[in-house]
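Good morning,

Both structures are done.
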Amino acid sequence: MLLRPHHALCIRFFEGYGYDPDFVRHMNDVITMLQHDDPTVTLTGGCDCICEACPNNAGVICAKDYKVRAIDDRVMNVLGCHIGDELLWSKLYEQANEMIVKSGRLKDFCRKCQWLYICEKKV
């Protein structure tokens, strides 16, 4: 299963604001599957399993790729991982939670994300 590195953060805080109902439904299905099955994920720099239903999906890349790529790079840098790495979902989630969220660094990573205000409320 392909997953963009920054989605380890988005999934933790997802509430469904600002997206169409199809995307919200799809995102909730992906989150449920990740939590239930704990699959091996392969880190990608392009569209992943979440992007399939996203309104910003421009084919093989995100229409906002310049922004999300920067977040992906920051996440990979602190976690010590790379595009193409494979790891259990639970390991990626826990590492992102410990090294970014619990350490109080979320704003540093997601500073240009339009949804940051939602995530900060939940930290």
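Second structure follows.
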Amino acid sequence: MIKKYLTVGILSLLLLSLFAVVLILVSKFKANSNFIPEFAHNINIEKENKQKNNENFTWQEELAKWPSKDFTPAAEQFNLYVDVDASDLKEKSKYYQLIIDKNDIYSVFCLKQTLKSFDVKYFLLKSSDSPEIFLDTDNKELIDEIIKELKKYKINTQAKEIWL
């Protein structure tokens, strides 16, 4: 119980001291509120001199009379990289899509194992009606062998040629 009061007391004391420091800083800032930076003072003097001369310059002439600054830009070189989409220019590749008549766990398992045994890359997309299988090959004989192998598991399959 004493530790609780001690902790609350210490936190209150720290908060009170922080509040006091903020008040002191704000009061000192208000005391120096009429502070004008040196560069702003120089600009005001230049404006007064120009008004005294009453010369009408174009903005280009006015800009040319500004004093030059001695600084280096942050970036001396600017590189622009443009990645052009040339996918329409590339030659399309031939792929095959397998259309199967079953969508159960056993059929999909058999399908995966068969494709794995033929060492063919494939993409399996699960849809509501039946899974869509896209094969990364253009070998028609290989596709016919896969279809024959799937018939052993009573999975009727059709191959559809796709150009991508």
